[in-house]
Amino acid sequence: MDRLADAAHLMIVSDLDHTMVDHHDPENMSLLRFNALWEANYRDNSLLVFSTGRSPTLYKELRKEKPMLTPDITIMSVGTEITYGNAMVPDDGWVEFLNQKWDRKIVTEETSKFPELTLQSHTEQRPHKVSFYVQKDKAQDVIKALAARLEERGLDVKIIYSGGMDLDILPQGAGKGQALAYLLKKFKAEGKSPNNTLVCGDSGNDAELFSIPEVYGVMVSNAQEELLQWHAANAKDNSKIIHATERCAAGIIQAIGHFNLGPSVSPRDVTDLSDSKLEDFDPAYEVVKFNLFFERWRRAEVEKSELYLANMKAVCCPSGVLVHPSGIEKLLGDCVNAFRTCYGDQQGKSYRVWVDQVLPTQVGSDSWLVKYKKWELSGEKQKGCLTTVLLSSKGVSVPEGLTWVHVHQTWLDGAGPTDDSSWFF
């Protein structure tokens, strides 16, 4: 990744459904805990990779439904597509590699002869992936017969069965594991091999991730039997792979701590955010902490105390200005005063705040420019803005925290509210 000049401190490669994203957690709390941990401690020097069986279409749908971070790299369609950055730029070298001994037309011809196979939706059919549903009791017989037919036709393919119903046919060189191996080889060629890599999964199509040498691995507590059986047969003596006792993203946090890969206490797990044990100024942590306090204030999860407001005013420059996404300029002190009117207005509601892609740049001996995306989720509606903050350490100590000098916000495309006044800060 061009964003990092040096090797990543940590690279997390995670499946999405039922691993990073818990569909049985309506509050998305484990995901939000991971988000806060990543943005406060890892975004600046590490890499986040999502490796999903979803097609680009379904992946983008999930991003609209859940409070997900933006990954540095996205591996989709069971390892057949690799893209980079916000623009999701495809890796052409990976496409060329997958074209070897692959003919999609032959695959569709042969699979049409199996009435047990039901074609998945058109969005899940990709250039290097043909996907079906098949009943669990018929899967193994179908896989065996289909593999033989495709081999007779001169193809070198891989058939992956996962989730008790999904059957994917890919080029032999494809898959989540091979895609990761390809990335690691690229990083090594650039002299940027990650210091540590943690792979995370819950189902059969994640098994390949755990086969990559020298990576750490976590099977989340809710991992499916097919992955646990693979582990028992292939990796039960590998001390670098654990079966977490926590579900989904909480299990990923647990693994970070278990393997001592870095900080593993999410800011969301800290009750008193003012009682930080920072040894040096940390702009990313300041941003995460401020926005988390704002959520707790509106949910009435902290006391309505003038002391809190006084402390917030103390970290705002007296002449500091907020440029609201609507274009209106306000003094930061006035914005803090306005907090009195919104205390508890989201109490008992599905209201959450999170930040994404928090990237600080030191622009002076005592100042930082921090860019990030701030998101608010209220019910099923998401609002988001691109935020740029100027922070200063001039005349303050680490326990006092950085001074907020200037804040500028603009609505993200399609993410603004119908009423600008509902956006406080």
Automatic annotation (TrEMBL):
Swiss-Prot/TrEMBL keywords: Hydrolase, Magnesium
Catalysed transformations (reactions): sucrose 6(F)-phosphate + H2O = sucrose + phosphate
UniProt KW Nucleotide-binding keyword: no
Domain Sucrose phosphatase-like: 9-260
One Gene Ontology molecular-function label: sucrose-phosphate phosphatase activity
Keyword set includes Zinc: no
GO biological process, one term: sucrose biosynthetic process
Pathway(s) per entry: Glycan biosynthesis; sucrose biosynthesis; sucrose from D-fructose 6-phosphate and UDP-alpha-D-glucose: step 2/2
Cofactor(s) it depends on: Mg(2+)
UniProt domain Sucrose-phosphatase C-terminal: residue ranges: 283-412
Signal peptide boundaries: none
E.C. no: 3.1.3.24
InterPro entries the record matches: HAD-like_sf, HAD-SF_hydro_IIB, HAD_sf, NTF2-like_dom_sf, SPP-like_dom, SPP_C, Sucrose_Phosphatase, Sucrose_phosphatase_pln/cyn
Domain of life: Eukaryota
Assembly mode: Homodimer.
PANTHER family: SUCROSE-PHOSPHATASE 2-RELATED
Family: Belongs to the sucrose phosphatase family.
Function as written in the Swiss-Prot or TrEMBL entry: Catalyzes the final step of sucrose synthesis.
Protein name per the record: Sucrose-phosphatase
Source organism of the structure: Coffea canephora
Taxon lineage: Eukaryota, Viridiplantae, Streptophyta, Embryophyta, Tracheophyta
Gene name tied to this protein: SP1
